[in-house]
Structures are given as structure tokens and as C-alpha cells.
Amino acid sequence: MDLADQDPRPLRGEPLSLDLLNTRWHDEQLFQQPNGLAVWLATNGLTGRAPDSPETLDALLRARAALLVLRADPLDTAALNTVLAHGRIRRSLDTAGRPHEEPEVADPVWLPAWLAADDYLRLLARDPARIRECVHDHCILTFFDTSQNGRRRWCDMARCGNRAKAARHYAQQKH
Ligand SMILES: [Zn+2]
Fold first, then answer.
1. In angstroms, what is the span from residue 43 Cα to ligand 1's centroid?
2. How far is the CA of 139 from the centre of ligand 1 (A)?
3. Can you give the pLDDT at residue 170?
């Protein structure tokens, strides 16, 4: 079975930085399962681009912690800048004369962490207001709102949206 098929997380498919944040949900964590790192790398098309090693995981956990700090305080930038200092984008023209961008990291264990940090910068450049946490009280999942009206509130309407509606309905029934 494909490793990515073993990804147990309730929300997948968000941009890389938010997908890293979404390795935590409720009281569960993808990286606590034995092949969690391998699954996350597979889900994000990074298998083989970084070693499936404790060092790669450590770098990712640092990037995730830095992103959480930023979600709490957008001006607390030091930790994410430390992650970003591990790499850069090298720009060139390819053999067909087209612009080409290639991430460069000093050590491949930093590639996934650096890509996640770089992705967050791209989301900030697009629209920081569209990086949001699910409004459900018991949900910590994060998404980038790509809806046309920018009014997405739930990580997943079927899961959190309906749970909230059901709770509201139940509360009204009691009166
Ligand atoms: Zn949710």
C-alpha cells in the first residue's frame, strides 16, 4: 500500500506549511506514529528528497513550533527566520529558456522544514487573513481559505460544521 494512503489525518491537502501544522489534531499527532515522518513525506511528495531520519523530523518539529509561535503572534518572527536561514531559492533559466527556481539547503535534513517555512511566506504574501484556524471549539486544524467569498469557517463542513450546527440545535431544543 502507498504510504500516503496510511495518512490518518482528518484534514489533508492544505498548503505545505499548514499541512505541517495539521500533523496535530485534537490530542493526536502524526509524528507519534512509528512511520509518521515517512507518511508525511509521502503525502507531500517529498519521499527521497530528504532522509527519513530523526534529524529531518527534528528540523520539521522546529519549523512547526516556529509556525505555531507565529500563529499566536505574527511579529514573533525569530524562530521561523532561523529555519529559513537553512536554505534559499536559487533562480536560473532552464535549457528551454524558462525561469527556474530550485530550493537549496545546506543539509538535506532541512529541506522539508525549509520548504514548509518558505510556503508560509508565500501564503502571507497572498493574503494573511485567509490563513485561519477552524472555528470549532475543539478543533485546532488550520486551512488556507481559497473560497471565492473568503468566508470558509470550518476545516471541513461535514465534520466540524455539522457538529457545531448539531450542538446549536441541541441547545435550542432544551429551552
Ligand atoms: Zn475543524
1. 20
2. 5
3. 73
